[in-house]
Design goal:
Layout lengths: L3 H12 L10 H20 L25 H15 L6 H18 L18 E2 L2 E2 L16 E4 L3 E8 L10 E8 L3 E9 L2 E8 L9 E10 L4 E11 L5
Helix pairs in contact: 1-2, 1-3, 2-3, 3-4
Length: 243
């Protein structure tokens, strides 16, 4: 298990080739953690899913949860950001390494859009789809093709879900309460409000509609000032075929 500070230290180490010769100070390490969090958030917003663990205040000893195959992309691209902070220019070799590792990460994490047959397309005489006799394809309700969509296997229980409202809350305002509801196929439990976060557990129980792969959880949060914010999380559930 490696930590966020390991990414930061490795980035500074790489930067020595381009002129970052001093050992990083505590201020430099804090800057590195801030740049790391910003970079991961920017990638996530661009639909690049790496599993990175986000925090309101990034900690040096927090596991980053990034798979080993993506480590070089994080280290080398973080190095590029830090070089700019110190007014340094990366060598051609380092710039090329950062670019190629990011390209591999991008190719590995990209989600292919699934094209569904139109409802006017015949499935063929005698064919059976999803256990039902039908002459034409029936489109399946699918989840948005983006990194924010949560993918779970029916039967999974995940205790790590949270909503952070730091950016929404005004000064001296707290999260007062939250009501979480979900489509049939999801069970919400263990709801906890600890301002500025709401944490909860999701169990993928599975639905009964063969033509539905999109399930939603709705979080309605109320602040101490009476303001209300509604968020929706999209879930994609799949059955694990063990036969």
């Amino acid at each position: 298990m490696t930590l966020k500070i390991d990414f930061v230290n490795s980035a500074y180490s790489m930067g020595r080739i381009s002129g970052l010769t001093r050992s990083p100070t505590p201020e430099d390490l804090s800057l590195g953690l801030e740049r790391l969090e910003d970079m991961a958030a920017e990638w996530h917003e661009a639909n690049i899913s790496t599993g990175y663990t986000f925090e309101q205040t990034p900690g040096q000893n927090t596991p980053h949860n990034v798979q080993r195959k993506y480590h070089l992309a994080f280290k080398s691209n973080l190095m590029m950001l830090l070089l700019a902070d110190f007014g340094k220019i990366a060598t051609a070799e380092l710039a090329g390494m950062a670019s190629s590792s990011f390209s591999r990460l991008l190719a590995s994490t990209s989600v292919t859009e699934q094209i569904q047959p139109p409802s006017t397309m015949p499935i063929g005489s005698g064919n059976k789809r999803l256990g039902r006799l039908s002459s034409y394809y029936t489109p399946i309700i699918t989840a948005p093709n983006e990194s924010a969509t949560v993918k779970m296997v029916v039967g999974d229980v995940d205790t790590t879900f949270y909503e952070d409202y730091t950016a929404f809350l005004l000064e001296s305002e707290d999260v007062s309460s939250a009501v979480i509801t979900a489509d049939s196929g999801l069970t919400i439990s263990a709801e906890t409000v600890t301002s500025p976060r709401v944490t909860y557990t999701v169990t993928a129980t599975g639905g009964t509609d063969d033509y539905k792969a999109l399930y939603e959880a709705k979080i309605i949060m109320t602040t101490s000032a009476g303001r209300i914010l509604t968020r929706v999380r999209n879930f994609e559930l799949t059955e694990l075929d063990i036969t």
